[in-house]
Amino acid sequence: MTDDASAAGAAPLPEPPGSTPPDPHEMASAYLDYYRDTVLRKLGGLSEAELRGSRLPSGWSPLELLWHLACVERRWFRWGFTAEPLQDPWADQDEAGRWRVPGHMAVQDVASRFRAECARSREITAGAAFTDRAAVGGRFADEREAPTLAWILFHVLQEYARHAGHLDIVRELADGATGE
Asked: What angle do the packed helices 24-43 and 107-126 form, to 10 degrees?
């Protein structure tokens, strides 16, 4: 992935609370943006071979992880929270549940789709209250199982934090780069 794929002006890590506690919705959204940018930074500068290859016994590639996160955004915010009908909410997985990128997608296509899904998720979350429940009819069949936006934000945030850690290891194995 070329350097232009990394976030220009990455989202800053939210400041620790001062005398007034921060708004939880704003803080969760800011942390999620921080990790979205972190993932792109960790992939920036890797060659196409490094993005499509794997250095891990499990076999996933950094590009597959980016595609997975684009699909996570779709599943949880569009299909999950707003109940938007999606043709293939599990487009990141093959029949065995292993991550895959559709063969026709170029690296820049995956990165563009990731950015677009993140932008759409921001629109959705900005227009909703932290306590709003997910709509019924998409991912959730009835309102008893529909989580709040707060739950979804924190679920997606923990997924990003975990995968950013995975990318720390992959990047160090690829070229020795460490750090934020």
From this structure: 170
